[in-house]
């Protein structure tokens, strides 16, 4: 038996060795296939092509072409005109009965230019809380209409965003105290309370110049938790009183309305404002008669008697569901969004989302077209990890080797396989297509409002006077080429609707939220 068992063992060993050898060979083949799959540059170098989707992998250039076709075609002239028409129709419907958008403020008068005094301006933005002591000296021709005496910026990080309910307003009051604890130049704190104006970058249902009901907040904030429908003015005032601060909140305005007020204080012809930063919004001065009466809620008869026009917070971010030019990557973004239907237009254009759309496209390019040697940098696997600001640095590097772009990318997204110049150029191209579409969508929104106002005022497009749109926000201000592209789309749209090129002009409004909050405070003080 022994020799037989020994022989069997030998046979078994030989068999196993053969299997292992074969497995190793297969593994080698599998590994090679895997290597080719995740590092298609190998194939590209040897064969000049990359296999991919539908059995054939795309090369980087082909992938960019696919991205270009997906995004560019969506904002050609005809598509933009249709989008503008669709948005205008949605605006009109919302002016009839939507409680969330096309919200008439209480500001029925634009600044007279006589606003003077020292005000504490508060600006709650998407990622910062800013507090400034501002001195207004009235409209003048020498550019000295306002002076910022003191200004502090506090970051609103994840922890602050997650403060629920009153805790958030207490945090605000604490910051205000910090600013006032140095001496408030230009104001004797022992006397009458210091007048505050607030720019609020969230929807609000105004109930007077100085009050408004808290509505659902986007941008990851939890402050409205348990407080929906409560008075925002009271909440802030109470938190300040608890800290014994001698301040009086006199005005609340949405940041889009603040932008309009800030520019109108200096240039009385301003009727439009546009914000494009973490969020997007527009404000417009419209005749009251175009709204259905319930849109005004309960207001004193005196308001109705004197209001012929009103500044409207459009909440532009909330329009466009179903008519916006979606791609597969937008669908992907929405498939895991906690609130996919709340602000459809914002998902296409704002600083809060541009980076994420580009990330989704890029990750697909890495996985299917061999960008970055087929290896996704670990941090890019995380949602919202690619910031719009990073893209703006990458797009602004015009050097042939993109050295700065590479340094900034690697500092934020370290990886073992540093991006090649081709990889960086590809990111630039993807970002350019995504932002080109965004600029078109924003232009369609502004054009739709322009058409709506022309109709409301019975002005024909070719008779429309030069319209200034006061703008502010990090994307419009800092993203390379964004404003210029947006202006070009606007010119196209204006001409398509029979107007003169340049009829709508985007005009920078510096420090618009802070200045607008101070102007709103001053207007409210004059109003009594
Ligand atoms: C908010 C608006 C705000 C805009 C710009 C949007 O997400 O809903 O109220 O004006 O962002 O900050």
Automatic annotation (TrEMBL):
The keyword Transmembrane does not apply. One of its GO terms (molecular function) is fructokinase activity. GO terms for cellular component: cytosol; mitochondrion. InterPro entries: ATPase_NBD, Hexokinase, Hexokinase_C, Hexokinase_N. Its EC number is 2.7.1.-. PROSITE patterns: HEXOKINASE_2. It is an enzyme of class 2 (transferase). It comes from the Eukaryota. Residues 272-523 form the Hexokinase C-terminal domain. Keywords: ATP-binding, Glycolysis, Kinase, Nucleotide-binding, Transferase. Residues 80-265 form the Hexokinase N-terminal domain. Pfam families: Hexokinase_1 (PF00349), Hexokinase_2 (PF03727). One of its GO terms (biological process) is glucose metabolic process. PANTHER family: HEXOKINASE, PHOSPHOTRANSFERASE. Belongs to the hexokinase family. This is Phosphotransferase.
């Amino acid at each position: 038996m022994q020799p037989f068992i020994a022989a069997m063992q030998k046979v078994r060993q030989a068999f196993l060795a053969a299997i292992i050898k074969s497995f190793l060979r297969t593994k080698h083949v599998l590994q090679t296939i895997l290597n080719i799959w995740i590092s298609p540059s190998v194939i590209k170098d040897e064969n000049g092509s990359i296999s991919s989707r539908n059995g054939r992998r795309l090369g980087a250039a082909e992938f960019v072409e696919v991205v270009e076709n997906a995004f560019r075609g969506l904002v050609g002239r005809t598509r933009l005109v249709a989008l503008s028409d669709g948005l205008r129709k949605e605006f009109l419907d919302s002016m009839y009965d939507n409680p969330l958008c096309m919200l008439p403020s209480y500001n029925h008068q634009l600044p007279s230019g006589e606003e003077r005094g020292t005000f504490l301006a508060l600006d709650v933005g998407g990622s910062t809380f800013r507090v400034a002591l501002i001195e207004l000296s009235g409209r003048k021709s020498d550019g000295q209409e306002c002076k910022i005496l003191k200004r502090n910026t506090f970051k609103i990080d994840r922890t602050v965003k997650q403060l629920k309910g009153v805790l958030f307003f207490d945090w605000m009051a604490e910051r205000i105290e910090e600013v006032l604890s140095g001496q408030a130049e230009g104001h004797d704190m022992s006397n009458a309370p210091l007048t505050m104006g607030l720019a609020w970058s969230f929807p609000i249902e105004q109930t007077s110049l100085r009050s408004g009901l808290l509505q659902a907040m986007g941008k990851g904030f939890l402050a409205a938790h348990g407080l929906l429908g409560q008075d925002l003015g009271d909440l802030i005032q109470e938190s300040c009183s608890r800290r014994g601060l001698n301040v009086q909140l006199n005005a609340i305005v949405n940041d889009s309305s603040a932008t309009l007020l800030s520019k109108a204080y200096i240039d009385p012809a301003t009727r439009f404002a546009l914000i494009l930063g973490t969020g997007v919004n527009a404000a417009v001065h419209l005749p009251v008669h175009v709204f259905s009466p319930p849109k005004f809620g309960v207001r004193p008869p005196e308001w109705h008697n004197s209001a012929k026009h009103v500044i409207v917070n459009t909440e532009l971010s909330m329009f466009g569901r179903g008519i916006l030019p979606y791609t597969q990557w937008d669908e992907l973004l929405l498939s895991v969004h906690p609130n996919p239907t709340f602000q459809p237009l914002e998902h296409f254009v704002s600083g809060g989302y541009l980076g994420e759309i580009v990330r989704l496209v890029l990750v697909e390019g890495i996985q299917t077209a061999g960008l970055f040697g087929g290896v996704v940098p670990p941090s890019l696997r995380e949602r919202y990890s690619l910031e719009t600001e990073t893209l703006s640095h990458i797009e602004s590097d015009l050097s042939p080797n993109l050295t700065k772009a590479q340094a900034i990318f690697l500092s934020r997204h370290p990886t073992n396989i540093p991006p090649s110049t081709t990889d960086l150029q590809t990111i630039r191209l993807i970002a350019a297509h995504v932002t080109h579409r965004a600029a078109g969508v924003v232009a369609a929104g502004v054009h739709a409002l322009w058409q709506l106002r022309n109709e409301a005022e019975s002005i024909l497009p070719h008779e429309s006077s030069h319209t200034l749109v006061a703008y502010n926000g990090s994307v419009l201000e800092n993203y390379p080429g964004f404003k210029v592209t947006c202006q070009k789309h606007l010119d196209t749209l204006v001409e398509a609707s029979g107007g003169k090129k340049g009829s709508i002009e985007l005009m920078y409004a510096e420090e618009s939220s802070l200045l607008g909050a101070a102007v709103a405070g001053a207007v409210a003080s004059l109003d009594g």
